[in-house]
Amino acid sequence: MTLAAAPAEALTPAGLSPLDRPGSAQPPSAELARRINAELPRARLPVEPARPFMLTAATAEDRTRALECLTQAVYYEAGFESALGQRAVAQVVLNRLRHPAFPKTVCGVVFQGADLATCQFSFTCDGAMSRAPAAAAWRRSREVAAQALAGGVEGSVGGATHYHADYVAPYWAPRLAKITQIGGHIFYRWTGSTGERAAFVGRYAGREPLIVEPQFRIATLDAQALAAAGPPERRAANDLAGRIDPSLGWTPSVPDVGSAYAQAVAASERPST
Fold first, then answer.
1. pTM more than 0.70
2. What is the C-alpha separation between 135 and 140, in angstroms, rounded?
3. Residue 190 forms beta bridges with which residues?
4. Residue 119: Cβ-neighbour burial (10 angstroms; 0-12, 13-18, 19+)
5. Which has the minimum average pLDDT: 22-26, 143-147, 192-196, 239-243?
6. Alpha-carbon Rg for the chain in angstroms
7. What's the DSSP call for residue 128?
């Protein structure tokens, strides 16, 4: 399976997928977004750690591809976050794999929608992978990915299947259950039974897709080349990871609480006294 680059004309003006916000509404500033996010309360729900995930039955080729794709997700999404933040991102990928709404391979989850400009993880569409990673950060990300694929569980995010950077306030956030914030990312799970541990019944399918387009840096990277490349550029301000796109025919129950978002915006725009 080969995923093509997302055509530029398919993106909305800010470089975002049409899934990011309704209509042509402009996103709030980073300062306003952080205030909106802070006012959105955490859900009063138990945080149930996910079951350990292990690729013991996978082929050597599948294990190699899965490790590479998960390493990329950890690096490009949270390569300069804490170890906790990196483990949380890896956990979201594996939570998605086990949820009926998403593909059943690691690479399938990470690169879902990258050929349709509806990238679930924006680094697969925004050109971030054309920049060589920093060697030390890449090695740390690979270690985190390897631990996750060997049964490591980051329990702090429970069944989180979505997250976003704290400097954006996506319209879908109030429709989900806010679990926690780790570093610069805020994590969410679906409400009701669709977000409970019992819903994560998906089984790993194997046959990891091979992503071979030149803009996707999939092959194992040479350590000397990584060291020479220096640190990568910081992520763009339009980062929106973990978008809602249940494109496999399974639609979760997400209550319409968009009014809470509007109320949060209005409250944040009122001058402080």
1. yes
2. 9
3. none
4. buried
5. 239-243
6. 18
7. G
CA distance 92 to 80: 17
Instruction: Tell me if 252 is assigned to some domain.
Output: yes
Q: How far is it, in rounded angstroms, from Cα 265 to Cα 172?
A: 14
Q: How far apart are CA 145 and CA 165, in angstroms?
A: 20
Span 24-47, average pLDDT: 87
Number of domains composing the chain: 1
Write the DSSP assignment of 29-78 as a string of letters.
PHHHHHHHHHHSPPP-S--PPPPP-B-TTS-HHHHHHHHHHHHHHHHHHH
Q: Which domain, by its residues, includes 141?
A: 28-44+52-260
73 near 107, Cβ under 8 Å? no
Q: How far apart are the first and last CA of the chain?
A: 57
The first and second tokens of residue 18, run together, are: 């049409």
Instruction: Decide: residue 102, CB within 10 A, 0-12 exposed, 13-18 middle, 19+ buried.
Output: buried
Token look-up 């059943």 returns 104
Give the number of other CB atoms < 10 A from CB of residue 198. 10
Top pLDDT among 155 and 229 is at 155
**10 belongs to a structural domain:** no
Q: Map tokens 């001058």 to a residue.
A: 271
